[in-house]
Amino acid sequence: MRFRLTPRETSFYDMFAASADNIVTGSKLLMELLGAEPSARAEIAERMRAAEHAGDDATHAIFHQLNSSFITPFDREDIYALASSLDDIMDFMEEAVDLVVLYNIEELPKGVEQQIEVLARAAELTAEAMPNLRTMANLTEYWIEVNRLENQADQIHRKLLAHLFNGKYDAIEVLKLKQVVDVLEEAADAFEHVANTVETIAVKES
What we know:
The structure is a single chain. By secondary structure, this protein is mainly alpha-helical. 76% of the residues lie in helices and 0% in strands. It has six helices and no strands. The protein is globular, with a radius of gyration of 18 Å.
């Protein structure tokens, strides 16, 4: 750990933890969407929209603190990258739920539940990891596991695309479903971006 003579602004740690906890809320709403009747999805989408707005507020709070802090716990560009990637996760999850409602999708293709399970696990790991930024301890397993989960998400995504293009669905339905599974894949990528940023921070601070 690098030795510092000046005090550091430590509220960032709490704000990153709060942002990650909100992502767990979003992942639970995604899981809820899976088991919901189509008529119940609009209400879930409203709660997801509220969670996404809370995520935006958390991100803006981090940026405001960054702009008003003279000394930061780690490099400013890394704080910005971490906050932005956490925000991206929430945006993609909210977009996926919104698309399901807007497109009046009756039944999601088999395999989407595996995508969402991967996202839920990545959300849990991310929420567990954020408090450890204070000490930079026990983070290696986190980013290794999130990268493994992203690879798993890639495989699930490719299988879903193959399923969508097997001739079972009409062209319009394929376009709708593909957009949903693509956005969920982008959420998995965003989790990996968070993990990679945490790894970069840990390497710099070691």
